[in-house]
Amino acid sequence: MRAVRGVLITCDSAVKQILLTLDERPGQSFIIEDLDEFHVLVRADEEQRVRRELEAELEKNTYSMEA
Fold first, then answer.
1. What string of pLDDT tens digits covers the 67 residues of the chain?
2. Could you tell me which of 2, 32, 46, 50 has the fewest CB atoms within 10 Å of its CB?
3. CATH at 30
4. CA 26 distance to own-chain centroid
């Protein structure tokens, strides 16, 4: 077995569900281990991409008032 560098991400359960959904996309696997309700270990080389995609998903679910 080969060692893989990872980053521990702490989040609430709603954000974790989004991360799990993003990880299920074909060719997008980045989760090394689903640790518990609030922690996920992701591949270190994918951290910035994961954060960008998560931010985009959260932005889709944000209400904004159009002027």
1. 789 999 999 999 999 999 999 999 998 899 999 999 999 999 999 999 999 999 999 988 777 777 5
2. 2
3. 3.30.70.1220
4. 15
